Amino acid sequence: MGQWYLFRCPKCSYETECSEGPDRGMYAAVDPMICKDCKEVHNVCVGEFSKNGDYKDLEKPECPSCEGNNLKDWVKQECPKCGDKMKRSNQSHILWD
After folding, report:
1. Mean pLDDT of all residues in the chain?
2. Is 17 within 8 Å of 4 (Cβ atoms)?
């Protein structure tokens, strides 16, 4: 089961809901990434599980907002707007399968 958290930038107040790192549910694997085109942090689907449990990496992961491929790993929870470190809420915000 995957978990999303609310992250907020203390400097510019940008907020997003996403996983803290690579995460997976029953049908998909995601990585939080920054889309360089829309300047947002999203959980990006990087792989899928078939009904029989086989896993397949996606060749070109896409931003769920703009469908672009200009993505970079979200390291150290940097804010895509100002570059400051974002703070995670203490409780998981969403649980998903």
Report:
1. 91
2. yes
Q: Are 7 and 15 in contact (CB under 8 A)?
A: yes
Q: Can you tell me the distance from the alpha carbon of 94 to that of 2, in angstroms, rounded to the nearest whole number? A: 8
User: Rounded distance, CA 67 to CA 35, Å?
Assistant: 9
Cα 30 to chain centroid distance, Å, stands at 6
Q: Report, as an integer, the average pLDDT of 25-32.
A: 90
Is the pLDDT at 22 greater than 80? The verdict is yes
Tell me which residue of 11, 17, 34, 15 sits closest to 82, measured CA to CA. 11
Mapped to the 3 state alphabet, what secondary structure does 50-79 carry?
Answer: CCCCCEEECCCCCCCCCCCCCEEECCCCEC
- Segment 52-62 shows an average pLDDT of 92
pTM: 0.85
